[in-house]
Specification:
This protein has 92 residues and is mainly beta. The protein is built from one helix and four strands; from the N terminus they run E-E-E-E-H. The protein has one domain. Helices cover 4% and strands 41% of the residues. Strands 1, 2, 3 and 4 form a four-stranded antiparallel beta sheet that branches. Strand 3 and strand 4 form a beta hairpin. The protein is elongated.
Length: 92
């Protein structure tokens, strides 16, 4: 069986501490946009040992954080009809 998020329920959740803050990777796209991406570790689970080497098997649950750093003005498109819900709020 698998937990929501992809980790199996027969492993052992391992506590961890971040020794070095994750670095942002800056990516310049062909359209002129610049985005930054970094990975954040959510959970680590030990799932037994490799039968061939005996080494522990670790599963890492992570998520990517993406932020827009630069966007050319011509790529920004606003649609006023879709920006607000029927009641005038931003919620739909």
């Amino acid at each position: 069986m698998v937990f929501q998020g992809g980790l199996p329920d027969n492993g052992e959740i391992i506590n961890f501490e971040i020794e070095e803050e994750p670095k942002w990777v800056k990516v310049k796209l062909e359209d002129g946009s610049v985005i930054q991406i970094k990975m954040e570790i959510v959970a680590i689970m030990k799932g037994g040992n490799d039968p061939n080497t005996g080494l522990p098997i670790y599963m890492v649950q992570a998520t990517n954080i993406i932020r827009m750093n630069q966007v050319p003005k011509e790529l920004i498109k606003k649609n006023p009809a879709k920006e607000k819900g029927a009641d005038g709020t931003l919620y739909r």
